Amino acid sequence: MIAAPQGLFSRPRLTVLTLAVLAVVLFLTGILGAVLFIASVFTLTGVFVWLWLRDIYRADRAERAELNRLRAHSAPQAVIPQSR
Questions:
Q1: Going by C-beta distance under 8 Å and a sequence separation of 6 or more, which residues neighbour residue 15?
Q2: Per-residue DSSP letter, 11
Q3: pLDDT digits 0-9 by tens, 25-84
Q4: How far, CA to CA in Å, does 67 sit from each of 28, 54, 61?
Q5: CB atoms within 10 A of CB 18
Q6: Helix, strand, or coil (residue 77)
Q7: For 6, which DSSP code?
């Protein structure tokens, strides 16, 4: 006589239960993966926007410093009267 297979898949009820658990795990993993992907896209976008704004701010400060330097050099000098 052939022995019935032993193990997890030997009973139909356990097979259905195993497949259901596997389906739930795969479903949740898929959702978790999608959520993590979306969060990473938003995070990277936020980082790039922050770096872009910081670059604009630094460029503006450098431009103002350069204009102030040019103004200081081109300002009319006070004329000091010389006594004879």
A1: 8, 9
A2: S
A3: 888 888 888 888 899 999 999 999 999 999 999 999 999 999 999 888 776 666 677 766
A4: 58, 20, 10
A5: 13
A6: coil
A7: -
Residue ranges of the domains in the chain? 11-70
Sign for the CA dihedral angle at 15, 21, 22, 27 comes to positive
Give the single-character DSSP code of 78. Answer: P
Which residues does 9 contact at the CB level (< 8 Å), separation at least 6? 15, 18
Distance CA(71)–CA(78), nearest Å, equals 15
Long-range contacts, stretch 48-53, CB < 8 angstroms, 24+ apart: none
